[in-house]
Write a structure and sequence with these properties.
Layout: H1 2-10, H2 17-26, E1 42-45, E2 50-52, E3 63-68, H3 75-89, E4 100-105, H4 112-123, H5 131-134, E5 135-139, H6 142-152, E6 156-159, E7 164-167, E8 170-174, E9 180-185, H7 191-201, H8 209-217, E10 218-221, E11 226-229, H9 231-239
Parallel strand pairs: 3-4, 4-5
Antiparallel strand pairs: 1-2, 1-5, 3-8, 6-7, 8-9, 10-11
């Protein structure tokens, strides 16, 4: 109690515990599964080409959406490393054939040159065929970024004291039509979790018959951050 009292005295009025809670809410990832990502949002890719998000829709494969900023000193890199690690072990699905990756910077000050540098750094580690053509690094205007982030429930906010962006860790899985199918929080994305999330987002268009059967008995548990057996489904099936 004494520690909390001293801390409260040390925090100026404009940074009271109430306002700190607002900051926490502003940088959280909220569940907006089922929401449509606006396809008309405009960005620029790492090759300075103007693109719309709809350019990546309707190609018959789900999309891994990674919101980050390229100058991030810690968390964004951990998310990307976790994604690369998971995808490297996901040998049964192929980028460009079964899924697409779109990384969007939420720092409107970042430009395509930095996006290209960041992409090159990951191309050195994720060397599967198709990565160059099917992992896209985008930058854009603040209004377009904010609309995208809001549509998938990704919160971020500039921290003037730390001189960096505050945000949570996670990736989003979109259907081929740009509908938010799954949110995978954290920085670790195991092969099995990525596999089932992509198959689920594709509505069975990728993967095997066995994958689709598994999804009838397994569901994503956000508390454990993995797909777990749906006990009641199994019980009902056994009863039948």
């Amino acid at each position: 109690w004494m520690t909390m009292a001293l801390l409260a005295q040390a925090i100026p009025a404009q940074h009271s515990p109430t306002s700190l809670q607002v900051i926490d809410e502003a940088t959280a990832i909220t569940d907006k599964r089922g929401s449509q990502v606006p396809g008309d949002l405009e960005f620029v890719d790492e090759m300075h080409r103007p693109v719309k998000l709809s350019d990546y829709f309707d190609h018959g494969r789900p999309i891994i959406l990674n919101l980050a900023y390229f100058g991030c000193p810690n968390l964004c890199g951990l998310v990307a490393e976790g994604l690369v690690s998971g995808l490297q072990s996901l040998t049964e699905l192929a980028i460009g054939k079964d899924y697409e990756i779109v990384t969007v910077s939420f720092d409107a000050k970042e430009k395509p040159e930095l996006a290209r540098q960041k992409k090159n750094s990951y191309l050195e580690r994720f060397t599967e065929p198709g990565v160059e053509e099917h992992w896209h690094f985008l930058t854009g205007r603040e209004d377009q970024i904010r609309k995208l982030a809001d549509s998938v429930g990704f919160g971020y906010q500039w921290n003037p004291f730390g001189k960096q962006w505050d945000h949570s860790a996670g990736i989003m899985i979109l259907s081929e039509h740009g509908v938010l199918s799954q949110v995978l929080k954290g920085v670790d994305f195991p092969r099995r979790t990525l596999h089932l999330a992509l198959v689920e987002a594709s509505h069975g268009k990728i993967g095997t018959v066995w994958d689709r059967l598994l999804l009838s008995c397994y569901g994503y548990d956000p508390t454990t951050r993995k797909y777990s057996l749906l006990v009641w489904t199994v019980v009902r099936t056994g009863g039948i």
